[in-house]
Specification:
By secondary structure, this protein is an alpha/beta fold. It contains 19 helices and ten strands. It is 42% helix and 14% strand. The protein binds pentane-1,5-diamine.
């Protein structure tokens, strides 16, 4: 039985097989820290306000209200659509935000640049609920796990409205590698009739293109960016949308094939059904692997309400709240204590909690150096302008 979906379990599958335990269903074990009641979080002495800046469609309904009710802290919750947008705000300074949620691919240079402050872990007892394997991979961006607490992880991949795609392909078989649907002109020429949409962000699209042509998605070589640009130029005329509203674009039929985020594609499927559509919307698992991302909460260097920020982080790390995120937003949680609270249909969805064999194929997040980000931005701008 291959049903290993937690970050830790996916990584440890080899060990399980070696121990001859491969027939056992995966037991999701609560970490020892979660079983005993954690020490209560320290009280905040600040004005009762907290300013959060997170991605859209990422927080379960009612979670913020529940925190406000319990803590008496008023939360102002704003959203940003790309890592680039958050980066620009942080670099400009005086964001007014206490908590921000960068992808780890950007967080490394943000930490190095002093834009984020170290956490006071004595104020976050529920850190014990986190999956040590995931935290272990995050040290690449955040040595000693001093600044970042995972909100969710997921992957950038290809999403389709299968009903519309099959119609547009008119008998042409689906490719083995789903990335072909968005990067091979043979397919995009046909799919442009029902709508190809790409995330409107250089650091989402260029790494996927690099990976498609067999290069390191986090390459530091300018020549690789030229090559990615050359690939993208060939599909430019077939792109309908550079999108910041992917869930709706897919759910309402503005797009039939996208490069998007796994959970958003799954949310589009649910939204389409809720709207009464019979079309089948799917998040695909390209044979050469999708690109993993990890988004993490961090406290800005000039946060006015750091104690409130710690209180919210601890609140979010309660097992039931982290599970709610997976259940409602279709992203896997990095909270190990939450996993047995995830609904079976979410835990069993292989495009949310992927199986270990597929997990092993995916591209792990790395960090973009500042020059690499610049190269990406340039390649992307030329692509978008069609030059
Ligand atoms: C938005 C999820 C953001 C994932 N719903 C990409 N960082």
């Amino acid at each position: 039985m291959v049903k290993k979906y937690l970050w830790a379990l996916a990584l440890s599958s080899v060990v399980l097989v070696a121990c001859g335990k491969k027939e056992e269903p995966v037991a999701v074990v609560a970490p020892t820290g979660a079983a005993s009641a954690p020490a209560p979080a320290l009280k905040s002495t600040e004005e009762k306000v907290l300013n959060i800046y997170n991605w859209p469609d990422y927080v379960p309904a009612g979670l913020i209200a529940a925190f406000e009710k319990e803590s008496g802290i008023k939360v102002n919750y704003d959203t940003f659509e790309t890592n680039e947008a958050l980066q620009a705000k942080l670099v400009a300074g005086n964001t007014g935000y206490d908590i921000v949620v960068p992808g780890t691919v950007f967080a490394k240079t943000q930490i190095e640049g002093g834009l984020l402050q170290p956490l006071d872990k004595s104020r976050i007892p529920n850190l014990a609920n986190l999956d040590p394997a995931l935290m272990g991979t995050m040290v690449k961006a955040d040595p000693d796990n001093k600044h970042l607490v995972p909100w969710a992880w997921g992957f950038t991949t290809v999403g389709i409205n299968r009903t519309k795609v099959e119609k547009a392909l008119a008998g042409m078989p689906m490719p083995d590698n789903a990335w072909d649907l968005v990067f091979d002109p043979k397919y995009t020429a046909k799919l442009k009739s029902c709508g190809l949409a790409l995330l409107d962000s250089p650091t989402e699209i260029i790494p996927a293109a690099l990976h498609y042509i067999g290069k390191d998605a986090y390459s530091g070589d300018p020549a690789d960016y030229q090559a990615a640009g050359a690939l993208l130029a060939k599909i430019r005329k077939d792109v309908r949308l550079f999108s910041a509203t992917m869930i709706d674009d897919l759910a309402t039929g503005r797009a039939c094939v996208v490069v998007g985020w796994s959970g958003d594609i799954n949310m589009a499927a649910t939204r389409a059904k809720d709207n009464g559509s019979k079309d089948v919307i799917e998040s695909l698992l390209p044979s050469t692997g999708a690109l993993i991302f990890i988004d993490a909460m961090a406290i800005t260097k000039d946060a006015k309400h750091p104690q409130n920020a710690h209180a919210f982080i601890d609140f979010y790390l309660r097992a039931e709240n982290a599970a709610l995120m997976s259940n409602e937003m279709s992203y896997p949680t990095g909270n190990k204590a939450a996993v047995d609270k995830v609904k079976p249909e979410i835990a069993g969805n292989k495009t949310i909690f992927v199986e270990s064999a597929y997990f092993a194929k995916m591209v792990s997040p790395n960090s973009f150096s500042n020059p690499a980000r610049e190269a990406m931005a340039n390649a992307y701008t030329s692509f978008k302008q069609g030059k």
